[in-house]
Design brief:
It is elongated and about 115 Å long. 60% of the residues lie in helices and 0% in strands. The C terminus is likely disordered. The chain is mainly alpha-helical. It comes from Coniella lustricola. One of its GO terms (biological process) is G protein-coupled receptor signaling pathway. Keywords: Chaperone, Guanine-nucleotide releasing factor. GO terms for molecular function: G-protein alpha-subunit binding; guanyl-nucleotide exchange factor activity.
Length: 470
């Protein structure tokens, strides 16, 4: 007998049709046992992973049957099996999302999300999340009437509580997967329904707690729930007493959270691809920028000390080292990551009090010039003249273009030319200018000829032979 995954063509289509017919009839007759329903739904789930020859699953009738098993059947295992089929169908076929909303099932999903299992949280958060793409789902109604914000916050509160408890290292995998789906749902709803974003403000302390508690692998610092945790803060209002208390607690822990973010940033910028930088580090920098904007003065000073070039960075040309400021500067000119490049430049400008003079002093004119021109910000008159020669924090002279301390610049070690080498170079220069004059394109004065007239050149000895350039 052929296995489920091996069926194709008419055989697969026939099997899918038979399963759906059986499940649809059982909604009225209820002749199947719980085990038989579970087996049928599981088989249907496998068939639905590949939409070829599985058309009945994606029809309105097929989705109606699955939604009834998902939301109208009391047996949790049966409901979850049906939700798995629905989640796969909505992911594979965008049209199914419209059907799901048309049937009014998003409100049922919000109600069922209150069910307290990791599988339910994972499945229902994903299903609601998928309705935010390509449908006319009324998110305001889900927040106001179905309590979506309160449910999401309660889920995050539970995750935060468990993250701080003993034994968090041995958490079951489904818990982390459920958290990721809830965070993605939070991000999309707060992005697409900005009018109700304040309803999610109580989530900020829980997200902050989870970021501080989460292990940060050195090789993949933004893997697992950490990336969606950071993304979740991008749309939320951090300018509330509740949010500020979580972000900047009183005492010696005031900068603990931002230091955590900068540590993640440091690891995240070590040898990733440009695509990874653009997708994962850009939101992280957006959050750091928001945190800095709302930070008290003492925390702002600390952040500037961590992200702006230090005296150690200025021992060489800025952007050449392995520090966080050096990594930021290298990437603020990366042509392959325009969004990342833009947010780094804006962050560094804001760290410089939005003052062009301070900005040039902090990062060097070489890094500052493009941002200033692009944003129509007047360039300080002394930026390129060499007048900006003192670093305010150290009092030492710096190169205004590269930001390096002048006393650390190394002159190129070029050996002294011999008289013969000088003569040969002069002859080459003479020949090049003579050829250029003959083209008639420009009228140019040969500097070698002029040097002879002014008595600044010695005659070449007769026995010296100089080869003409080819």
């Amino acid at each position: 007998m052929a296995s489920i995954g091996s069926l194709t063509g008419a055989a697969k289509l026939g099997a899918v049709t038979k399963l759906l017919d059986s499940l649809t009839k059982d909604l009225e007759s209820q002749k199947l046992t719980t085990e038989q329903r579970a087996a049928a739904l599981d088989e249907l789930k496998v068939y639905g992973r590949d939409p070829r020859d599985a058309d009945p699953i994606f029809t309105k009738e097929g989705i109606t049957t699955l939604t009834r098993y998902a939301f109208d059947v009391e047996t949790i295992s049966t409901s979850q099996n049906a939700l798995k089929c629905l989640a796969n169908s909505m992911l594979i076929k965008p049209g199914v999302r419209h059907t799901f909303v048309e049937l009014g099932c998003e409100t049922k999903a919000c109600a069922l999300l209150k069910r307290d299992t990791w599988d339910d949280e994972f499945l229902l958060s994903r299903v609601i999340f998928l309705t935010t793409y390509g449908t006319k789902v009324d998110l305001e109604k889900l927040i106001d009437e179905e309590g979506l914000a309160e449910t999401v916050i309660a889920k995050l509160a539970k995750h935060a509580s468990l993250a701080n408890s003993a034994g968090k290292e041995t958490a079951e995998p489904m818990r982390g997967m459920a958290l990721s789906e809830t965070l993605k749902l939070l991000f999309n709803v707060s992005h697409f329904c900005k009018a109700k974003v304040d309803a999610f403000t109580p989530a900020v302390p829980h997200v902050v707690t989870l970021i501080k508690a989460h292990n940060v692998p050195a090789s993949q610092p933004l893997e697992g729930p950490l990336s969606p945790l950071i993304n979740a803060l991008v749309n939320l209002n951090l300018d509330t007493p509740e949010a500020r208390e979580a972000l900047y607690p009183e005492g010696d822990k005031q900068t603990l959270f931002v230091d955590r973010l900068i540590h993640i940033l440091d690891l995240s910028m070590d040898n990733p691809s440009d695509e990874e930088l653009q997708q994962t580090v850009t939101p992280l920098l957006a959050v750091i920028r928001l945190v800095y904007e709302q930070a008290p003065d003492t925390a702002k000073t600390h952040i500037r000390g961590r992200l702006l070039p230090t005296a150690d960075d200025r021992q060489k040309v800025l952007g050449r080292g392995k520090t966080v400021p050096a990594k930021l500067l290298r990437n603020c000119t990366n042509a392959l990551t325009p969004q990342l490049r833009d947010i780094i430049s804006h962050l560094l400008f804001e760290l410089s009090d939005k003052d062009a003079h301070k900005f040039v002093e902090n990062v060097g004119y070489g890094y500052a010039s493009g941002f200033l021109f692009q944003n129509n910000i007047p360039v300080p008159q002394n930026a390129t003249s060499g007048d900006i020669s003192q670093n305010s924090s150290s009092g030492r002279a710096v190169n205004p273009i590269t930001g390096q301390f002048l006393d650390q610049e190394i002159e190129p070690q070029v050996p002294e030319m011999t008289d013969e080498e000088k003569e040969r170079e002069a002859e080459r220069l003479f020949v090049l200018f003579e050829r250029l004059k003959k083209t008639g394109i420009i009228d140019v004065q040969n500097p070698v000829e002029q040097a002879f007239r002014e008595g600044r050149f010695q005659d070449i000895k007769d026995d010296d032979r100089i080869e003409e350039l080819d």
